[in-house]
């Protein structure tokens, strides 16, 4: 399994958004959508603002593959479900810290969407 480089972690982790294009069942990419991304150590995570109703997330959950662009990084990724994981407390804190300037109307749904947490693993 490939690991993120320190440069990739920094560039993606400090970017405001990530363009996520999950792989559909027929192997094609969905149109990319902007999502918030947070870093925890050497890992990167995303969640669906709309919870499990998010169309991009439902596609990602089915295929567990996608393509991301963020901070000048352009990579294919494996999407690993982290629902119920102990890491979710740290991810909640990361969302509040990184995006707190946008207020609770935006951050609270991201924290509430713990069940949609996906870890991005480079391929």
Automatic annotation (TrEMBL):
Superkingdom field: Bacteria
One protein family per Pfam: DUF2255
Full protein name: DUF2255 domain-containing protein
